[in-house]
Design brief:
Low-confidence stretches: none
Structural class: alpha/beta
Shape: globular
Helix content: 40-55%
Order of helices and strands: HHHHEHEHEHEHHEHEHEHEH
Number of helices: 13
Mean pLDDT: 94
Oligomer: single chain
């Protein structure tokens, strides 16, 4: 399974010390918040034809990391969610499967049991999710447990406290250590918790930091704070992966997560992807939605397009 570990070698000079890394990150172009938010808002007003909407709905379904990250999760709940990921609409087998099921490390085996033989991946949060407040050996053990249980993807959280205190090298080294722990067995998604990073400039710096350390995906949020994925903060991530590929030739995926609940919202994000980075990112290898309730709305809208009427409230399962 290819990973982006070569990114680390490309920035050996910039990551040689705290000082050099700070100079590099603070030398990135600044972001005009008003201009950024205006562009994100304008792209969200684009209208699409019915045929394009049908395509967008199926594409969005195929990009979902169907997620349950609750203390009350049980093996039975995870197995049911995994079955839904494979066949989101049991009455219509033309419905695409989701990209992955995302669970805690101790639930990976339960998800894997159902998903064996399918193309649906098992993603697992790790590194003391969602706060990221643990010693590095504990974080690496968390990752190791998930990978050994069969996780195909690891969603790690950065130490936001260290980042905001300016300890960029510490954050870089933790991401690189997790990247090494994943090896060739799992792709790595790095979560920044953009709602806690205060500024768009910080989000851009975190994006580059994650990619330089070898992230396969960069991800907005855990879904556990007040401000999660927004068009504006996702636009920052998209511009970062575009510029990173232009400089290095390495492509990195993007995953907005948290707060994306409706088909209308999902389509807005797909337009954002198409207009910012283009068709190269318009598949589930490079773009994901971290969501739980989004799938149900997509299924309801899909049936509306097929039949001309909305389904009753019992048409989809409540996860």
């Amino acid at each position: 399974m290819p990973t982006n570990a070569p990114a680390a070698a490309a920035f050996a000079d910039a990551t040689a010390s705290d000082g050099s890394l700070r100079r590099f990150l603070h030398g990135l172009p600044g972001i005009d918040p008003v201009g950024l938010e205006a562009r994100a808002a304008s792209l969200g007003t684009r209208s699409i034809k019915t045929s394009a909407k049908a395509y967008a709905i199926d594409l969005a379904i195929s990009m979902i990391d169907l997620t349950t990250l609750e203390g009350a999760d049980t093996p039975g709940k995870v197995r049911a969610l995994a079955a839904k990921a494979v066949h989101p609409d049991p009455t219509d087998r033309t419905t695409p499967h989701t990209a992955a099921v995302c669970v805690y490390p101790d639930m990976v085996a339960s998800a894997k049991e159902v998903l064996k033989g399918s193309d649906v991946k098992v993603a697992s949060v790790a590194t003391a999710f969602p706060a990221g407040r643990a010693a590095l050996p504990v974080k690496l053990a968390d990752v190791r447990d998930a990978v050994e249980a069969g996780a195909d993807e690891i969603d790690m959280v950065i130490d936001r406290g260290a980042f905001l205190a300016g300890h960029y090298l510490k954050v870089y080294e933790e991401i690189a250590a997790v990247r090494a722990e994943c090896g060739d067995r799992a792709r790595l998604k790095v979560i920044f918790e953009t709602g806690e990073l205060s500024t768009y400039d910080n989000i851009r710096r975190a994006s580059w930091l994650g990619m330089m350390a070898g992230a396969d995906f960069i991800k907005t949020s855990t879904g556990k704070v007040a401000v999660n994925a927004t068009p504006a903060n996702t636009l920052v991530l998209l511009e970062a992966v575009r510029d990173f590929r232009a400089q290095t030739g390495i492509q990195v995926g993007v995953k907005p997560a948290g707060g994306i609940r409706s088909t209308k919202d999902a389509v807005k994000f797909l337009v954002l992807v198409n207009e910012t980075v283009g068709a190269d990112w318009l598949d589930n290898h490079w773009f994901r939605f971290g969501a739980s309730s989004l799938l149900n709305d997509l299924l309801m809208q899909r049936q509306k397009l097929a039949t001309g009427r909305y389904s009753g409230p019992d048409y989809v399962t409540v996860d």
